Task: structure prediction
Amino acid sequence: MRYRRPGLDGLTHLLLIIGAVIFGLPLWLALTASTHSAGDLQSGIAPLWFGDQGLANYWQLLSQPMPGLGVSALRLLGNSLVMALGIALGKIAISLLAAYAIVFFRFPCRTLCFWLIFVTLMLPVEVRIVPTYGVVARFGLIDTYAGMILPLIASATATFLLRQCFLSLPSELFEAARLDGAGPLRFLKDFVLPLSRTNLAALFVIMFIYGWNQYLWPLLAANSPDHATAVISLKNLVQSTDTLPPWQLATAMTVLTVLPPVVVIVAMQRFFVRGLTDAEK
Amino acid sequence: MTTFERHSLTPWLLLAPQLVVVAIFFFWPAAESLRQAFYVQDAFGLGERFVGLANFQHVLASPGYWHAFGVTALFSLLVAAGAMGLALLLAVLADRVLHGARLYRVLLTWPYAVAPAVAGLLWLFMFDPVLGVLTHALAAIGVHWDAQLDPGQALALVVIASIWQQMSYNFVFFLAGLQMIPASLLEAAAIDGAGPFRRFFGITLPLLSPTAFFLLVMNSVYVLFETFATIDSTTLGGPGGATRTLVYKLYEDGFVGRDLGGSSAQSVLLMILVGVLTFIQFRYLERRVAY
Result:
């Protein structure tokens, strides 16, 4: 292209590399600190390079109960996984059915149903946190996976998105399926689902990260360590002690907590960008 | 779109799971919030008394609420300015490069996957009074850092952690916006003799303004709700309420202080605030569709 300037290109790469390094620095420092012993860390500045205690630190986290919490990191990561998958898959499942009903059927109160679901877009769980706790407690769901997952599924982002996606399918498709004698379930399974695969994958990436990173709700709903999540445990690790935080464990736990969602986002980069920009349209 | 006409029960069966979940876990609590905002509970939580708008009057007359409002507004402003400025700069750069564009995109977007609570801890570690890298760097230039005692530094800590995280979100949208700008426009300007900076301020920036406005609203919503975790894992709202945002105060009054009426009134006020933000956003979306 005529208007490119080679000199500016070098500067562009330089600035981008500086940006990437600065954005990577916090995680890099956590990674290097997690391979040093507690004594090493207390004797000066956080190290910029790896030490030799990495295996010992991670092994301690994964095999022994965490100080101040009493369960191992393995359990915490497992809880996070259950919660993230429960939210992602649960939300996609109920939203898929609801969006399918709204787009492909005519029935009384269709618009009302859509608006009832649509209104939930406006209020995140943080706003109605106290009464939500009351409702979940009334069902005896405090400290259960169901109680941790259900209130976070009660929102319309996914329904809204899938509705847009279904509306964009060509209507000839629907007529062809009717001519072949396909009923509602056949049509969903053989036509709609395969055609919305990309959107479903994008939705899954966004919802998995949303679920894995939840903080306030699991903090309240999982009040025993047995159901605590990885994200919640970090606060415990850093703030529970009166003395210096055990940074070698805290940074190792940070790395373990950050890894699954970061792997998802990097591996599914294409879907992630699509999911993010779709979700806000 | 044509529809399945002869099925009258099927749509209800399909809708049932979502409607049930939304009714129980959304509308019930939201209605409860609304109701409790007009009642006062006695100290033992046994009885309650209708008090009209007294809870709202009480909340709106308390200096603590307005202080939290001010903290939230300042917080939003700083995060929006910082995260959007950085994201725009990096997106413009990433849009220019031909080689390695995908790698840069991955390297600049992964912080989106980091939980806000974890983002807070990563920066808490960098600013640790004993071994923090940045604490030592600041000491070298004569700045004494102690976010546990200094209100301004505590706010700076959570603002920096939030900017770090929110940048990646803004970056994705700015980059998508940049890629939608027709190359022919920029080429025409180049042929007319406009340099890179002239093209940026004359064409790119005006065409990005809808994206920027949308991001401004989204960044405010982020600060309103998501930063609860950042604050709770680092400064706990302190020192002296310097980092106590509206949602943090709501949580403290409702769960720690057990003030149901007061916290419900705050919930309702937040609902109104979010409603206004959503309304603004939809108005803007309509306009964007129009042109």
Observations:
- The radius of gyration of chain A is 24 Å.
- Chain A has one domain: 71-279.
- The mean pLDDT of chain A is 84.
